[in-house]
Amino acid sequence: MTIIGIAGGTGSGKTTVVKKIVEALPKNYVAVVPLDSYYNDTSELTPEERKQINFDHPDAFDWKLLLEQIEMLKKGQAIEQPTYSYIISNRLPETVHVEPHKVMIIEGIMTLTQPEIRDMMDLKIFVDTDADERLIRNILRDTVDRGRTVSMVIDRYLEVLKPMHEQFIEPSKKYADVIIPNGGDNAKGINMICQYIKRLVEEK
Length: 204
Fold this sequence. Notes:
Elements: E1 2-8, H1 14-24, E2 30-34, H2 47-51, H3 63-74, E3 79-85, E4 90-98, E5 103-107, H4 115-118, E6 123-128, H5 131-145, H6 150-169, E7 178-181, H7 187-203
């Protein structure tokens, strides 16, 4: 199995890059493991306590479960991937059945911050997009999908997203093998990565 890590700031276009890689490779070639699915279970917290969670800090993620499920996929075992709701800030009862494939893509803002996970990767990618463009995308996404007002998104960006990006996400760029500027709009960069992934799979 070839393991690809894709990181970058929130709103950088990571999901678009993953989608285009999946579309460019043969059908049933890729298993996608989104880091967003592995936020900690917060069932023991009250709704008010959940609102205080910093979801842009490494401590917000269940790294132990993620590592366990990556190992299972590497061994050829299917997993039941958790699902997470931003509306209630907790996991949902439903899971997603994920079968092992030739390629596993681990995608998320903190994907390159953890040495144990980085060491498992055959290729590490950082999606690099200007901060103002990421902010605009966050406003559009959070007002439409997460029921937030524009002022709420901007306040959260200034108080949480920006400092966490500078403290954890931006420094993880140094671990990347490849940096993709302009996210999903970089067709040439994505095409080159797809060709390289195919070669990695063939070599294995």
